[in-house]
């Protein structure tokens, strides 16, 4: 991972700071907790760590509401802790990517507080989207946009003006047409680059620029993140100009530092626009994340992704889980078609089998892969959290189908024993189910059948064989229905997504399998929902 284009095939591990490790016993994870667990991540075999926001924040949206972009929230530590974390990571050979939230600030950000205080007509209001309302007394919102978390995307302040927030009311959207906003974010980028970070994950990268005049949605479909036409608040062409400017700043710094876009666009082709050579380096592949465990559909999205990325020269990326969606162990435990948010635990054993198989498939594809903390333990979503402990604003604002994000944010079990299974000494902000004792890092370490050891082995193979993540193509092999088979140089991957065992050729020396595989007379019987890796070398 010393190469300058390290990011082209990097495996990047997402740490959700409040739920990773708690060093001070307050039930909330923190930077010092993460620092002390870095050796675990090095041993797991990932290349980089992406940290979800740890900045000063009232936590109305778990830190995605930033009040001060240059400060660490006291709940997570301070700037010295951030410095120590970045430095220790580097010494262990791990890169650090931080989250940047440029679409909106917290309503407790100094700019917003002053804008509200100064009243209508204040130039400070132009850094956000303030508007008079409609109707006789301005009692109706300025347009018909809806918040992603439910309800109108506008909130009225005391003097009668309304402000725009695509997410919670505590997250007012910046007006990126105002030069001060761009200046401020270019300065924030430099602040963290000077701190030594290796890159940024850009939150809502598709949202910064809104269509001129903030036109009504009108006949556009209801707000959906994928598979829709272009919304007046998402994926506007103007957003690319911002990233071209950011890229110039990044390239002033030594070493190869990167941007990864969180851009929910309707198609992989539109996602590819964000990773043109003079813009960002990577973009999450949400089409892949949203695909069911089905050979035909997977093959379709893999082909479309590789085709879309080839002309722009950016690596494909693959992701199965993050802090916004139901963990894939639980998604795959349920019938397809339920989307990324699911309400039932489903058939857990089936879900885990498929999750393990999906991991080996993902790690065999060319490009970069993202792992969300806890998936290496096979953690399921916690689907029965009580309302009293939930904190996700989407849940409380009635985002319906999309409002179930606490279940994938439950703190990591590190040990079999203890009040929070080794997460910390003072409990955990969301309760962990008792079955998590046996899913803990301690319980799985050294058990060759465990999901943790499967991840360790797979990542070790990937490190030994750099050709695994390299290139931009897969060579499909003939395979029975429900099965994906492809060759990449001296490497063959077979993923059986069907509910039955299948017979395929034994393609070489068996490297790794997510489930049972029996070889005889040059053939291999691959169990249902199982992925196998072979090498012909
Ligand atoms: O998410 C952006 C987004 O559009 C969705 O992932 C959305 O949050 C989810 O589907 C709603 O249920 C980013 C962050 O990843 C998310 O955690 C934040 O809440 C959001 O931006 C606002 O900052």
From TrEMBL:
Keyword annotations? Glycoprotein
Q: Does the keyword Cell cycle apply?
A: no
> Where's the Glycosyl hydrolase family 13 catalytic domain?
14-405
**UniProt key word Transmembrane helix:** no
Q: Name one GO molecular function term.
A: alpha-amylase activity
- State the Gene3D superfamilies in the record: Glycosidases, Oligo-1,6-glucosidase, Domain 2
The family database entries (Pfam families) matched by this protein are listed as: Alpha-amylase
**What processes does the entry annotate via GO biological process terms?**
oligosaccharide catabolic process
Q: Which domain of life is it from?
A: Bacteria
Q: What family classification does the UniProt entry report for this protein?
A: Belongs to the glycosyl hydrolase 13 family.
PANTHER family from the UniProt entry: ALPHA-AMYLASE FAMILY MEMBER, NEUTRAL AND BASIC AMINO ACID TRANSPORT PROTEIN RBAT
Protein's name according to its UniProt entry: Alpha-glucosidase
Say which species the protein is native to. Answer: Streptomyces griseorubiginosus
